[in-house]
Please model this.
Amino acid sequence: MLYLVATPIGNLGDMSERAVQTLRDVDWIAAEDTRKTGRLLKHLKISTPQMSFYEHNEDTAGGRIMNLLEQGASVALVTTAGTPGIADPGFTLVRAAIAQGIECTMIPGASAHTMALVLSGLPVHSFTFRGFLPRKAGARRRCFEQDATSPYTLIYYESPHRIQKAVADALDLFGDRPAALCNDLTKLYEHVERGTLSELLAYLDKARVQGEYVLCIGGAELVAKQNKASAS
Model:
């Protein structure tokens, strides 16, 4: 059986009892980063053997995992932090297991984009999650252009090295929409900055930029409602 096990995105207290027990009970743990997962396992006093499964070895490692599953072994898939398959490796393995009739289940837990969405103050009834933005400026701008007419709240991941340029591009292509910028979620210095995109850009000019960011931007539907309210 294949288990997809969510791990904390920062605070180790968010590790569920069921997740801990699953990692103890399975035959193997397939990890995106065995060193980082190793530290988590040591903290939890878990001795289950690990194997590597990450973006650049998905084909070879996935084949090995499938062989184990077909032989009756149990495997837990974890990522460096958060939910497997969400902006992290996992989709191809789940698809392969389903195709072979191998049972899959999930032990749910932390996910940065849902936490950021809830804390953003933006509409949560519908949203579009885009994962990590492209590294190159041209591709990033094209991504924003594709989303410009989306009615739903938009969610992006970005690194500290590119977050200022990303917010500047968003302001240029979306206009000054309401937005929220979240970083260090669940950690000691967790912070959510809310405002318009221009206000977030001004904040970043002065802030100490560190940790991965989640950028939430109001969708076209919200903007249209705000414009209608202002006109009435």
